[in-house]
Amino acid sequence: MKKTFVGLMAAAAALALTAPVQAQEKFKACWIYVGSIGDFGFSFQHDQGRLEVEKEFGDKVETAYLENVSEGPDAARSFERMARDGCKIIFGTSFGFMDAELEVAKKFPDVKFEHATGFKTSENMGVYNIRFYEGRYVSGQIAAKQSKAGVAGYIVSFPIPEVVMGINAFMLGAQSVNPDFKLKIVWINSWFDPGKEADAAKALFDQGADIIVQHTDSTAPLQIAQERGLHGFGQAADMVKFAPQAQLTAVVNNWGPYYVSRVKAAMDGTWKAENLWEGFKDNIIYMAPYTNVPDEVAKEAEATVEKIKGGWNPYTGPITKQDGSEWLKEGEVADDQTLLGMNFYIKGIDDKLPQ
Amino acid sequence: MDIWVSILLTIATAATPLLIAAIGELVAERAGVLNLGVEGMMIMGAVGGFGAGYLTGSPWIGVLAAIVIGVLFSLLFAFMTLTLATNQVATGLSLTILGLGLSGMLGTSFVGLPGQRLPNLDIPGLTSLPVVGRLLFGQDPIFYLSIALVIAVTWFLFRSRTGLTMRAIGDSHTSAHALGISVIGYRYLAVMFGGACAGLAGAHLSLVYTPQWVENMSAGRGWIALALVVFASWRPWRVLAGAYIFGAIWIGQLHVQAIDLSSFASSSWFIYQPIALIKSLPSQFLSSLPYLATIVVLVLISRNKRLTMMNTPASLAQPFVPER
């Protein structure tokens, strides 16, 4: 129903554009979200980026979005409609839009397409992604410093490379402080289910973890940490107001500056299809203010962020795989291809990776 | 011992919204109305409960608002299916779709706001008793309400005149009509009770389980409640058992994933081996266990055709038009 409503709005806007009173044509930038902008998670953060674009360009830019668009071939309809509605640049913000978006991009060579977290590009379709793992490494360090039990609980959704990469980076960060750090991992097979996430957090706390990390989207685990007087990390957004005494920091997805720069490039005519995987250095993620931690822990975390900004990769050897075999030699840095296809744990993680 | 108490408390929290929504639906189905809109009424209750709680600062007003909204939303269904005699399955489905969309729209301004939590019961002296204190005297008020509902509905359906009439309507609306009973009137009441319960279950989600509002936060619990009614073959106590079995399997599998197997190394074979076995199963399988259990029970129940026929309200989901 909402989709239709947005569609009507878009149609009305298109009519308004063709009206003679409209002297200057606005540049139209469009977004397609997999979830709803009310999820306070992944899609919400993308929409915050869209709002930043509106704020930056004022009347020069008009934006539109479609939410709750299913992944897969059917998404092509949504992209096509956006392209026909006069969008000059379209951001598809979920991995599963990849093939549909590529197909539509071929049909509309004059429209610029951008796809988040994917790997297929063309003349007029670029991809962009965040090095989320950089933030998780910093979280891991803080967790190892703050945990009295030396055990963190990790709530995860699905065993895809993105998630595994995050678990390993978190563990590497923790091991850099405490080599015997333990991680308890619970898979809930859902990106978003506040109730299940809360239950998983309770289970992990009951089993002895005193810090919680999540790769699921709701604020529920942090709220449980708050109730129990324990701690955790925000996911994708700064969630501190849900858990003022529990959140240590959060890895915040900051799409805004990226969207502003790409829309600007498209308006200037300097836009090129690119394959970008950015991190702290580009300010596409940042750590939310460190709360409920001593000053020196916050300082050390900031130092790590600076080190990563300076070009250091958390995935620098020596790193051993879970089975004891060597992955990276001393000083060797993981290449992006391996990271993007990561399907193994590092040493010290006591869990069987679901295949 | 503490960990067991904690697990039991978690199970109770997980089971309560399922139990409440299912008991409401059970009454509606006993009166012969199949309302597939439980999920929609539940999510409307969740957004209404959160909103009212947030705006007034009182979670209790939130609970009341959720119940009222659940009833109002169910009236929409009742008007369509009972007064206009539309198809119950189709109308129920659209009620769910409408509820999910409408709640998202109404809740836009509540997203990202920290909500009110309904306080747990705290009776001085009793709540602090070891082990049983927290379990019996320290849970959230809606938990106690859910148990009371099971008792009340059991009494109502099997011991009260009105309840017997309602069941008679569910079994044969034409006979009931011939006896001069107001079929439509009773069914309106039954559907409204179902709506009130679904609204209350929604309030539990947004005011107790996870005190916040986000779209789709019911995450399919309304559908599980619907399955529980069949699972329980339309008997209130079995709904209670079903909800807690479902909750126990769900919470249990999370614990098994988190458990450190080496800490059981010295335990007996009978404890160690089952845990090791379950832990070796893929998590996707564990996540689907509660649903698999439901299917298995449904298969077992439906093996006995006569028993199934005896339990199922015979006029379930059939539209009733007095003139025919």
UniProtKB/TrEMBL annotation, chain A:
GO terms for cellular component: plasma membrane. It comes from the Bacteria. It holds the Pfam family Bmp. Residues 1-23 form the signal peptide. Keywords: DNA-binding, Signal. InterPro entries: ABC-Purine-Binding, PnrA-like. Residues 28-308 form the ABC transporter substrate-binding protein PnrA-like domain. GO terms for molecular function: DNA binding. CDD domains: PBP1_BMP-like. The keyword DNA-binding applies. This is DNA-binding protein. It comes from Aquamicrobium defluvii.
Automatic annotation (TrEMBL), chain B:
InterPro entries: ABC_transp_permease (IPR001851). Keywords: Cell membrane, Membrane, Transmembrane, Transmembrane helix. CDD domains: TM_PBP1_transp_TpRbsC_like (cd06580). It is a multi-pass membrane protein. Pfam families: BPD_transp_2. It is found in: Cell membrane. One of its GO terms (molecular function) is transmembrane transporter activity. It comes from the Bacteria. Its main location: membrane. One of its GO terms (cellular component) is plasma membrane. The keyword Nucleotide-binding does not apply. This is ABC transporter permease.
